[in-house]
UniProtKB/TrEMBL annotation:
Source organism of this protein record: Hyphomicrobium album
Protein name: Tryptophan--tRNA ligase
Pfam families: tRNA-synt_1b
Enzyme class, broadest EC rank: ligase
Keyword annotations: Aminoacyl-tRNA synthetase, ATP-binding, Cytoplasm, Ligase, Nucleotide-binding, Protein biosynthesis
Amino acid sequence: AFKERVFSGMQPTGSLHLGNYLGAMVNWIEMQKTHECIYCVVDLHAITVWQDPKELKNAIRQVTAAYIASGLDPKKSILFNQSQVPEHAELAWVFNCVARLGWLNRMTQFKEKAGKDRENASVGLYAYPNLMAADILAYRATHVPVGEDQKQHLELARDIAQKFNNDFRDGIVEKGYADGIFFPPPDPVITGPATRVMSLRDGTKKMSKSEPSDMSRINLMDDADAIADKIKRAKTDMEPAPPSGLEELGARPEIDNLVGIYAALAGISKQAALDLLISTATEGPSIYTGLKRALTEVAVARLGPIRAEIIRLMNDPAEIDRILADGSKRARAIAGPIYAEVKDVVGF
Ligand code: ADP
Ligand code: NA
């Protein structure tokens, strides 16, 4: 059995948002207490769609600053950007040759991101899940804290690990892995109060960096006024309270989302958050005024200090670059020897 190890990453595209924070980051910070953790800024993933090179450099630093501002400790955990550790791309190529076209054809995120003009999507966008498998398995990570949208990609990473173990079984056993397990199939860690935060404009779509409307998400870089404005204008509905009772409001997707975000930020159960909505329903011009006020308060209290810390860290880009260089060195010290064995097993 391999030692438990955590790996996860986020793309340096646009500002991190409340979905990234509640869906993944909160677990990242928590897992630092119990595990060896490796957290990556996945810049190779970012360029699967066009990125302005000057903005990309800045975005890498900004996501790094956001990790640290949210509580990631770069002395304890390994914090680095993907492109500085060449084993990610090298192992991804091997996995391009292990994974089957049929497996990738089933990936729903590619279908969503490529949209109607699929012929014009980059090959990298299509092969993205193989690179993600390499990110994880380059370190033999056993636990991957992510949001619910990544579940299918994690299943693919498990399939790749298993097929690699089968395809190269003889060499793997010869290397001393008596049980034939070279890559342990990684477990997704999809837990916590908000594994799928939805858009503020459409309760059926997830909150995302790639959503065109900035009003659809709360960014870690939003100031108190922007947060208040977005929550105030968050889509609810014009309908009066359902005749069957206010309890029913929780079944409406946009309301369920606001209740869920409030519960996650306040550290209370969804039922307690719904109770607050019900008990304040008569306070304001709309039945949601009380909930939105409470949500704004707790969001500003939680994100304000993070934003201030990101701004402070961004004043010293050289220090951020130094942290990334140091993390890359520590990451390579783990990935290098594993990839050297991969080469042997594959036969080069
Ligand atoms: P995005 O989808 O906004 O571009 P990434 O693909 O970089 O963000 O995802 C980074 C992490 O944040 C992943 O673990 C992903 O599952 C999580 N995540 C992204 N959006 C959400 C969301 N709306 N709710 C919960 N988790 C999310
Ligand atoms: Na995503």
